From TrEMBL, chain A:
Calcium is among the record's keywords: no
Gene3D superfamilies hit by this protein: Glutamine Phosphoribosylpyrophosphate, subunit 1, domain 1
SUPFAM superfamilies, per database record: N-terminal nucleophile aminohydrolases (Ntn hydrolases) (SSF56235)
Keyword vocabulary terms for this entry: Glutamine amidotransferase, Transferase
Protein's name in the database: Glutamate synthase domain-containing protein 1
CDD domains recorded: GlxB
Record carries keyword Transferase: yes
Residue ranges of every copy of the Glutamine amidotransferase type-2 domain listed in the record: 13-359
A Pfam family of this chain: GATase_2
InterPro entries, per database record: GATase_2_dom, Glu_synth_lsu_1, Ntn_hydrolases_N
From TrEMBL, chain B:
Protein's recorded name: glutamate synthase (NADPH)
Family named by the database record: Belongs to the glutamate synthase family.
Domain of life: Bacteria
InterPro entries: 4Fe4S_Fe-S-bd, 4Fe4S_Fe_S_CS, Aldolase_TIM, GltB, GltB_archl_type, Glu_synthdom
PROSITE patterns, alphabetized: 4FE4S_FER_1, 4FE4S_FER_2
Length: 374, 501
């Protein structure tokens, strides 16, 4: 049977996301409790978390989280790493033995910056350089996989139920201002750790519940812009589309939302002339970046997240707020579990994004731990 | 009669219990098959002349007529087939090139029929187009790489000219001359009502149809018939015709007897003179020359209209298409080897070119690998027979399709393949005023609207089944196709998996 990455596997899922808009950090236990409520939406074949603000000591470094199948993969990758990067710190990612998480690969993290001479020789900016490096490792080094690469953030994922994954990675010991979580229900999978969510590239991470019927269209479109979709997962495609729109094409996140869940033509006709012009261009230029098929998705980037449904809302998504906290999840129960009395609870319409961003400009300055009312 | 060694191809069966000698068949048949025998007081038929266009069969008020394949056979021979022998009789008789019409009718594999379409079950809900929005609108033209906005979200991108289509379907190039005034009237009016486009072909634009300009693509072919300022100005887009699927590599010839007063005016040539389209454009001997013509036409139309290039699907189609994209064309139309024609040498029609299915797949793949696919539109032509063919064409990588033969069938064509004789009993491929008036454009345009609307519904149903609510998300979505009964090599070229994979 083909391993995930060589074959496309549809899956259903649970997702959850929490942000403190004041930028204050809180423990990973909260998101773990939230996603655990939706245990039945996953089947133990994949769980994971993205955490932002967890590495204040290395906030200027790219944090590479790696899975290695064996020592050889590790050695080959480290040779390549050392040739291209200055490594400020590296370690085995701390884990605890748990009953339900088995067959763990070697899991390491590295805090790195590209070597200036290599970067200059490449004539790329450092983000493009990193992306190219990641594609190279993931595609060409057998048994090595970079699954997290942003600054001051990290992804933690495994084959298992999300609450077990949180325990395995000791997430209660990390504090971040924004967290997302994912529990997976693949219809079949050989259980590859890299296939779990969140999917990450630089500071963009994606958790996704759904199945893209536009997968092949989206993938081919991305390939024209130099992305190589090696995992054959919908989430990978969604992440690259956001990377293209937000990082490369500098679209505001509100408009990126209108690309992946674009308004219908008859809605566009009814807009003001200025908006009509905008959406006309957006829809035509990015027609192949439309994500079609059922999905609810949370995309996290530097300073916030966007949660959105497909435009006819074929998957569940609920949102709530309390003070500075914004919650989104597949089910309201997952929010109520960690926020008993929200100020407001709402169900976003299809294609209508929930955007929550840190209010202070300089997010890297804020790392006070704050008690969270739960 | 039989001195030319030929025997009749068809047999006219008349049920004399039903025939009332009304002579409708006699009046309807331009081939003069039927006549009335005074002595016998009976209608009789000359089987030799029958082309099986079925006009009489349909018009006979008592349903007395049936045309069958003539039962006369040669001694069975797998090598010297009926056609092989008869073609030799014909050429030995006339010393001429064999002419034929409509598309390649040889039993080559039809790859559309070896592909099946996906649908959602459980993991992805199918969408009911009667209850949910389902978008079929597409745009043909060059697309910028990215959108540029100023800080107030005003669009700074200069969007190249686009054709807006309510259905991913257009009417293929068929010239006035090869088809009748009424056929053009039907196509033009239907295109307008449907919000799509028809293509004048290379025979110029009749002055009566200038009012449909917004839905008209005009062709500039090697003969440059009818091309003037007005022509370019009136159209919504200009298409340079390099070749056509039915006769790649050769030109065209409208015999002088078909060049009536009206056609002479439209084509801008003298009445009764042969209208000859040279095989190549004599100002295009290379890709740079093509680029010059593209930009001359863009200059002439103030860069306000898409300029497309139509080519026949041939071996090297992917590289040629890439060259055309880089030469500045806004869209590329590719015509496969089953594409129809008003007249083509039979050997060329039946042996030159490649199937459109392969051509689309390899052009789409090639342009993608060069990172330029998203900048240009691709129109597939060459025997699109139904809505499923369209779904498959788009999933393989086309943006839209051209239909020619299917549109003519909608207005009455019975595929008798005699268009080149000018005696089309259905009033389509003829300039004989008595025949032309048989095609009522009032009815014709409605039948075309019905056809495209029906296909639109079917496309929506199939899209919904796949869990897609926008045709854009089908483009190049080859995962939605599976192949049946193909070799691995064929599957690889089409870029699809085998059924069950
Ligand atoms: S049209 Fe029919 S009924 Fe009339 S003459 Fe011909 S065969 Fe007889
Ligand atoms: S257009 Fe007329 S002549 Fe040509 S195939 Fe159709 S029916 Fe026959």
């Amino acid at each position: 049977m083909l391993k995930e990455g060589n074959i496309r596997i549809p899956s259903g899922c649970a997702i959850s996301g929490i942000i403190d808009k004041s930028g204050a950090v809180f423990s990973g236990q909260i998101i773990a409790d939230s996603i655990a409520t939706m245990h039945d939406r996953s089947n133990g074949l994949g769980g994971g978390f993205a955490a932002y603000g967890i590495y204040p000591d290395f906030k200027e470094h790219y944090a590479f989280h790696m899975f290695y199948d064996d020592a050889k993969a590790k050695q080959d990758t480290e040779d390549l790493l050392k040739a291209n990067f200055v490594i400020a710190y590296e370690e085995k990612i701390p884990t605890r033995k748990t009953q339900s998480i088995k067959n763990a690969p070697l899991i390491h993290r590295y805090f790195v910056l590209p070597k200036l001479e290599v970067l200059n020789a490449s004539e790329m900016n450092d983000e493009d350089f990193i992306v190219k490096f990641i594609f190279n490792v993931n595609k060409n080094i057998d048994g090595a996989y970079i699954f997290s690469s942003g600054k001051n953030m990290g992804v933690f994922k495994a084959v298992g139920y999300p609450e077990d994954v949180a325990e395995f990675y000791k997430l209660e010991t990390y504090n971040g201002y924004m967290w997302t979580a994912h529990g997976r229900f693949p219809t079949n999978t050989p259980g590859w750790w890299g296939g779990a969510h969140p999917f990450n590239l630089l500071n963009i991470s994606v958790v996704h519940n759904g199945e893209l019927s536009s997968y092949d269209t989206n993938r081919k479109y991305l390939e024209e812009f130099g992305y190589s979709c090696t995992l054959m997962t919908d989430t990978e495609v969604a992440a690259y589309i956001f990377d293209l729109l937000l990082r490369k094409h500098k679209l505001p996140v509100t408009l990126a939302a209108k690309v992946i869940a674009s308004p219908l033509w008859n809605q566009v006709e009814r807009l003001s002339p200025k908006e009509r012009e905008l959406y006309y261009n957006l829809k035509i230029i990015y027609s192949k970046a439309l994500l079609n098929g059922p999905f609810s998705i949370i995309v996290t980037y530097d300073n916030g997240f966007i949660a959105i449904n497909d435009r006819i809302k074929l998957r569940p998504l609920t949102a709530a707020s309390q003070g500075d906290m914004i919650y989104v999840a597949s089910e309201e129960s997952a929010i109520r579990r960690v926020c008993k009395n929200p100020d407001k609870v709402w169900i976003p319409k299809g294609g209508e994004p929930v955007i929550a961003e840190i209010e202070q400009q300089n997010i890297s300055e804020i790392y006070d731990k704050k008690e969270v009312t739960a | 009669m039989s001195l030319n060694y030929l025997t009749p191809e068809f047999k006219v069966l008349r049920d004399y219990d039903r025939c009332i000698n009304c002579k409708v068949c006699m009046r309807q048949c331009a081939n003069e098959v039927h006549s009335y025998d005074e002595d016998l007081d009976k209608m009789i038929a000359d089987d030799y002349k029958c082309v099986n266009c079925q006009r009489c069969v349909v018009m006979c008020p008592t349903h007395a007529l049936t045309i069958i394949k003539h039962p006369q056979v040669f001694r069975e021979n797998a090598n010297w087939t009926y056609d092989a022998i008869r073609d030799i009789y014909r050429q030995a008789e006339t010393g001429g090139v064999l002419l034929s019409a409509m598309g390649n009718d040889r039993p080559y594999p039809i790859y559309w029929d070896k592909m099946v379409i996906n649908a959602s079950q459980v993991t992805n809900p199918s969408i009911d187009p009667l209850r949910e929005p389902m978008e079929l609108k597409i745009f043909i033209g060059r697309k910028p790489d990215k959108i540029e906005l100023d800080e107030n979200l005003n669009v700074k991108t200069k969007m190249p000219p686009q054709l807006k289509l309510n259905f991913p379907i257009m009417f293929s190039a068929m010239s006035y001359g090869s088809i009748s005034y009424n056929a053009h009237a039907s196509l033009a009016r239907a295109a307008k009502e449907l919000g799509i486009y028809y293509n004048t072909g290379e025979g110029g634009l009749h002055k009566d149809f200038r009012k449909y300009g917004e839905n008209t693509i005009v062709q500039v072919a090697s003969g440059r018939f009818g091309v003037d300022r007005e022509y370019l100005k009136t159209a919504a887009a200009v298409e340079i015709k390099i070749g056509q699927g039915a006769k790649p590599g050769i030109g065209g010839h409208l015999p002088g007897e078909k060049v009536s007063e009206d056609i002479s005016e439209t084509r801008m040539i003298p009445v009764g003179s042969d209208a000859i389209s040279p095989a190549p454009h004599h100002d295009i001997y290379s890709i740079e020359d093509l680029s010059q013509l593209i930009y001359s036409l863009k200059e002439a139309t103030d860069y306000k209209k898409p300029v497309g290039v139509k080519i026949a699907a041939v071996n090297n189609v992917a590289a040629i298409a890439s060259g055309i994209a880089r030469a500045g064309a806004d869209y590329i139309a590719i015509d496969g080897f089953r594409g129809g024609t008003g007249a083509a040498p039979k050997r060329i029609r039946d042996n030159v070119g490649i199937p459109i299915e392969f051509a689309i797949a390899s052009v789409d793949s090639r342009l993608r690998s060069e990172g330029i696919r998203h900048t240009i539109s691709l129109v597939a032509a060459g025997s699109i027979r139904n809505s499923a063919d369209i779904i498959k064409a788009i999933a393989l990588g086309a943006d839209a399709v051209y239909i020619g033969s299917a549109a003519l069938i909608a207005i009455g064509c019975h595929m008798c393949q005699q268009c080149n004789t000018g005696k089309c009993n259905w009033g389509i491929a003829t300039q004989d005023p008595n025949l032309v008036k048989r095609l009522n454009p009032e009815i014709g345009y409605k039948r075309l609207i019905n056809l495209i609307t029906a296909w639109g519904h079917e496309i929506q149903e199939m899209l919904g089944g796949m869990g897609i609510n926008d045709i854009e998300s089908l483009k190049g979505n080859r995962l939605m196709l599976r192949g049946i009964g193909m070799t691995q090599k064929e599957l690889d070229i089409l870029g699809i998996l085998a059924a069950g994979e």
